[in-house]
Amino acid sequence: MSILDGKKPSLFGRRISRRAALTGGGVLAGAAFLGVAPTFSARAGNPTKIRLAWTEFAACHSPLAFGVAKGIFEKHGLDVELFYQGASGQTLVQALATGKADAGAGLLLDWVKPLEQGLDVKLFVGSHGGCTRLLASKASGITTLEGLKGKTIVSYDPASPPKHSFQIALARAGIDPEQDVNWKAVPFDLVGATVDRGEADALAHLDPWAYSLKKQYDLVEIANTQTGIFEDKVCCVLGVNGPFLEANRDAVRRLAEANIEIHEYTGKHPEEVAQWYIENLKPGIELADLSDDLGSFVYHIHPIGPELVQQVKWAAEDLQLIKVIDASTDPAELAQRVTANLLA
């Protein structure tokens, strides 16, 4: 089920380019890529075209559209077209596997299983830390992971990334995430109401919805993917089609440079990015809420090279713990195989 059932984002099927978007004031600070200045300015020739799959209404993807409109990708010699890939890891994989996109942004926990199964995509740079939350009703009295034993947690899909994230957290806390906890799946828009009606004790959800539901229903935050076992872990990662990488390695490196610069800028100016996003894409979120939500993300986590390999290894080990990754898979070998080291 698509989480977009009944709601159509404002720019479906439309290319988002620098020329097509409104560009506000402000000068973007240049962020060096691991101490190396952008390499395109001294080159002759046209920018490299890249179709980048994204999810338009996901708050954590808003920096990508901002980067297109403000010319950050262009500064790195890239002509980026944002391709709306859908609303899940499955649709992201389909967009890349069918050649509708050259690269894409997605949750690391969504990437690992398809990559284990042979998807011809390489992960090459991280964007930021976690953007999912585990929230409980005050009526439940739950304040810790241990307090969830015997309780019901609701999410929007039987295999949603928030569910997997907090199954991992429960397992690391010594709680069987299947036997000791009851999981319930409901339509995306009913996750908060299910807890409010007392039909579940807690919810696992993505931002900005988790952030909004916490405020709307006065929920208690039990865990998130920025702290605890997830501290210093990357959440969203860019992947690129194998053939595109082989033919355009330097362009992919420049895409990594631009991605890091965009997210570093967002970390310093979340209000500016939120304002642009609301004015141009009209996501139906209050400006103050989106600014606070974007400001809560950890933007200095964008591993590349060996650091990314380590992050993928950790993710594979975590998914193996909850039986998503096959027991026979070697997480270290998998991580080496599915990442591209742009530093080599």
Give your account of this protein's structure.
There is one protein chain. The protein is of the alpha/beta class and 344 residues long. The protein has two domains: 197 residues, D-Maltodextrin-Binding Protein, domain 2, CATH 3.40.190; 92 residues, D-Maltodextrin-Binding Protein, domain 2 (3-Layer(aba) Sandwich), CATH 3.40.190.10. Helices cover 37% and strands 16% of the residues. It has 13 helices and ten strands. It has a five-stranded mixed β-sheet, sandwiched between helices. A five-stranded mixed β-sheet has the order 7-6-8-5-9, with helices on both faces. Helix 4 crosses helix 12, helix 9 packs across helix 10 and helix 10 packs across helix 11. The longest helix has 20 residues. The chain is globular. The N and C termini lie far apart (41 Å). The N terminus is likely disordered.
The N- and C-terminal alpha carbons lie at a distance of 41 Å
Structural class: alpha/beta
CATH domain topology of the largest domain: D-Maltodextrin-Binding Protein, domain 2
Report the order of strands and helices: EHHEHEHEEEHEHEHEEHHHHHH
What would you report as the Rg, rounded to the nearest angstrom? Answer: 20 Å
Strand order of the largest sheet: 2-1-3-10-4
Number of domains: 2
Q: Give average pLDDT, whole number.
A: 86
The first-level CATH class of the largest domain is given as: Alpha Beta
Detail the poorly predicted runs: 1-44
Helix content: 25-40%
Give the CATH architecture of the largest domain. Answer: 3-Layer(aba) Sandwich
Q: Compute the number of helices.
A: 13
Shape: globular
User: What share of residues are in beta strands?
Assistant: 15-25%
Q: What can be said about the biggest beta sheet? A: 5 strands, mixed
Number of strands: 10
In CATH terms, the superfamily of the largest domain is Periplasmic binding protein-like II
Oligomer: single chain
